[in-house]
Amino acid sequence: MNRPASLVAAIFLIIIALAQLCRAIFGISITAAGFEIPVWPSAFAAIFLAALAFWLLKERRQNE
Prior knowledge:
Blueprint (H helix, E strand, L loop, with lengths): L3 H23 L3 E3 L2 E3 L2 H23 L2
Helix pairs in contact: 1-2
């Protein structure tokens, strides 16, 4: 079964994971509502999102 939505979701997750990884590497600061968000959670977010993306791609490949 061809599932284009799962492919789009996986690509979207990979892009967000790369953005989080870049933030963690370059130490880009983000301020929301006057509070500075620490950089260290971005490393965990990058790992988590990348794992979800590859899990989705693996599941997609098994169903082909």
